[in-house]
Amino acid sequence: MKKVEAITNTTKGNGAFNQCNSLISVSLPNATEIGNLTFNGCDSLSTVNLPKVATIGEKAFAGCKKLEMLTLGTTIPELGTTVFAAGKPEMIYVPVSALSAYKTTTKANWTDLKVKVQALLAG
Questions:
Q1: What is the distance between the alpha carbons of residues 97 and 109, in angstroms, rounded to a whole number?
Q2: pTM
């Protein structure tokens, strides 16, 4: 499996794609929750689109060393501990209208990620 697109699911359960080494791209436009260890060890995963996610569980992206781009929505998600253990995304794209909120958030586990947040340009 190289690509995952799910239109109707709002939750991805704990460990759903754990150690799926061939997974490169994920688009879950209606997902509101990503469980613990969901993409743990997906070491080829490079792009993730989660525009409606409100919660990302512990170690959900642990070991995703090639994660280049994470796209999020206007709501700043709650992050479990060590969501990005052993590799943070290179860039986190958010809507222009939410950029300031992301850059100044005091939510737990966002401190080291704020520098990676960029505006998602329409076009």
A1: 22
A2: 0.90
